[in-house]
Amino acid sequence: MSRQFMRQMQKKKGGAMPDMSGQMGNLMKVQEKIQEELGNKVVEGFAAGNMVKIEMTGRQELVSVKIDPSVVDPEDVGMLEDLILVAFKDAMEKSQQLGSEAMSALTGGLKIPGLF
Asked: Does pTM surpass 0.85?
């Protein structure tokens, strides 16, 4: 670009930079709103045919753990631990997918590192 063009851009209401910073400010506000909305949405992860259920927000915050008493075997604690882990991973994947979908709507499908 020519120097003359750059000077003209600088003269127009502070140049191109204030407009860009305004857009970034708007983007950050939208991102904050999406984060707030994700915090209000809850996904569920399951294991053993819904015998173990994990609830998690769209911000990956654990809300609750529900365990059907029939899967609690004092002789096989390892199985219960595995079921909890499976349900947790299921909830985490759903929560991350919810976040990805929300951010994709904001970015038009572009994956911007560090934005979310």
From this structure: no
